[in-house]
Design goal:
This protein has six helices and two strands, in the order αααββααα. The longest helix has 20 residues. The protein has two domains: 71 residues, Arc Repressor Mutant, subunit A, CATH 1.10.10.10; 36 residues, no CATH class. Strand 1 and strand 2 form a beta hairpin. With 119 residues, the protein is mainly alpha-helical.
Length: 119
């Protein structure tokens, strides 16, 4: 297994699972569901997901996989970093002095809070 490719797939899997969880799509996606989200086959993902489970990012759950606390934290940070330009606040939501600009975790938390207030 190419280590650079394994890191890339790790980030994509954790980002996708964090997003699926945050949007209420699935807390425990199967390999097939995750594969559809990432445009990969379940067979291709199998070894990577197994490795993520061994490394403590995922745990097996009812026919799928669930993020562990480490997986949630890593997925959240990776998601925030990857989509920072797209998740910046729009006009009127907050300004440059908002606490959410301190780091990616704070930006993700600010976005979550704004989304929950909108519901």
């Amino acid at each position: 297994m190419d280590e650079l490719e394994a890191l890339r797939i790790r980030d994509e899997v954790l980002q996708a699972m964090y997003w699926m969880r945050s949007e209420g799509i699935s807390e425990e996606p199967s390999l097939a569901e995750l594969g559809r989200c990432l445009a990969m086959t379940a067979e291709c993902l199998g070894d990577y997901v197994e490795r993520l489970e061994q490394e403590g990012y995922l745990s097996a759950a009812r026919g799928g996989y669930r993020l562990t606390a480490l997986g949630v934290e890593t997925g959240k940070r990776s998601f925030a970093d990857e989509f920072a330009d797209l998740t910046r606040p729009a006009h009127g939501e907050c300004d440059e002095s908002c606490w959410c600009h301190e780091d990616p975790d704070e930006a993700a938390r600010c976005l979550e809070e704004r989304a929950s207030r909108a519901r």
